[in-house]
Design a protein that fits this description.
Layout (H helix, E strand, L loop, with lengths): L1 E7 L2 E8 L4 H17 L1 H12 L7 H22 L5 H12 L36
Helix pairs in contact: 1-2, 1-3, 2-3, 2-4
Length: 134
């Protein structure tokens, strides 16, 4: 499950959805991603960013597939490391993506983000439609 580029040599094709993996698992992950976008502020912001960014905007369906993969990674991390879900970490990652800064994800998770090697930055609203976390 994910996005794949159809390109060869100098030819650059469109990005398409791969249909790899278990069919039912893909279906339920996609349904969970749709629900997360509707009911969760941080996943909604991520969906808006992916669909409205100026550099390589994704279509709605492609964005939902990327969010489904992100959701699967979040669930896997919670289960394997025994962490508690923190929506502020998702918002901070989106902030780093929008500002094109490198988020170092090493160390243990905490809400004050000291494990990232920097203090939490203040989040300001922006007039840019593609990224509200600048």
């Amino acid at each position: 499950m994910g996005l794949v580029a159809c390109s060869s040599g100098k030819h650059k094709g469109q990005t398409k959805i791969s249909h790899r993996g278990r069919k039912r698992l893909r279906y339920w992950l996609f349904q969970a991603a749709k629900s997360a976008v509707v009911h969760s502020k941080e996943f909604k912001e991520l969906h808006i960013y992916y669909t409205t960014r100026t550099d390589n905007p994704l279509k709605k369906m492609q964005s939902l597939i990327v969010i489904a993969c992100k959701l699967l990674r979040v669930i896997y991390t919670i289960l394997t490391k025994g962490m508690i879900y923190d929506p502020k970490m998702m918002e901070y990652e989106l902030y780093c993506i929008c500002n094109k800064t490198n988020c170092n994800r090493q160390g243990k998770a905490s809400t004050d983000y000291q494990y990232l090697g920097r203090s939490k930055r203040s989040v300001k609203s922006n007039t840019n439609k593609s990224c509200s976390w600048q």
